[in-house]
Amino acid sequence: MHLVLRVLCFSLLIPGCLSSTGEITIGCAQWRTSAGSPDICCESCHPGNRLVTPCGPDPKKLCVPCRNETYTTDTTSFSCRRCTQCVGGALTLKKACTRSRDTECGCKAGLRCGDGHCSFCVQECGKGQEPLPAARSCRNCPVGTFSDQIHEKCKLWRTSCPHPHEHIVALGDAVSDSKCGITNNSIPQVPTLPTKRGSEDGTGLVWAITASCGVFIILIILFLVIIINNKNKPEKTTHNEPNLIVPTPPTDEPRSLMEVSFHHPQQEQGSSSETLHSQDSETKLLPV
């Protein structure tokens, strides 16, 4: 029994010394004893140690550290796992592997880890886009959806507002949801102040004066158009007046007398003797 107590004290002193030097602690961290048995059974190894045998007299020999390039996060595991290698053009090393932690990889700018272990990289989707896991790329949010976060799936626009007196006043876009607000129909009627009322009356008066001026200008334009059309119409032709025969004044010339005598109109009525008589009288007047 004394031997067991000495071993236990020695096992407790060794981890403290190793931890002060920065090295990993070796052996079992928690164990239990059994009545009537000198052996102890390990319940949990120190981080970075794997279990060799569950029970034994020496807790230091129950667990051993993982070898280089291996690790374990299970303090009751009998084996260690191989460290992940950040290989590939897109992967970068963030933290090196230790006996108690696997390698932590990252991705270059514009890319992000495709899974929780960052075993591969995918294109980082911006706002207004969503990732396509199968293609490891991005696509724009379809119409009716949006994405306001980096590398998130697109969400549907809202179709209703949270408050009963609000309505959708603007549809969303690829990076924002539809907006809610109070429409004019839902605004309660507020009594109008006298000053505001007077301003409204003044506005109505201005509109009335403007409309009257517009009607007056239109009437003037119509009047001018009518006058111009009347001026452009062709004037009516006047009736030809009958030609008047101007009597020729008597002269002493024989030719003129003869012309007058020959152009004297005959009477429509009368006997032939009267006509002959008048011709004889006219003949006598002519000089020999």
Automatic annotation (TrEMBL):
Record-linked CDD domains: TNFRSF9_teleost (cd13424)
Region annotation Disordered: where it falls in the sequence: 236-288
Bias type Basic and acidic residues, positions: 252-266, 277-288
InterPro entries: TNFR/NGFR_Cys_rich_reg, TNFRSF9_N_teleost
Membrane-spanning residues: 205-228
GO terms, biological process: regulation of cell population proliferation
Single GO MF descriptor: signaling receptor activity
Swiss-Prot/TrEMBL TNFR-Cys repeat ranges: 65-105
Record keywords: Membrane, Signal, Transmembrane, Transmembrane helix
Leader peptide range in chain numbering: 1-19
Amino acid composition bias (Polar residues), ranges on this chain: 267-276
PANTHER family to which the protein is assigned, alphabetical: TUMOR NECROSIS FACTOR RECEPTOR SUPERFAMILY MEMBER 9, TUMOR NECROSIS FACTOR RECEPTOR SUPERFAMILY MEMBER 9 ISOFORM X1-RELATED
UniProt-recorded name of the protein: Uncharacterized protein
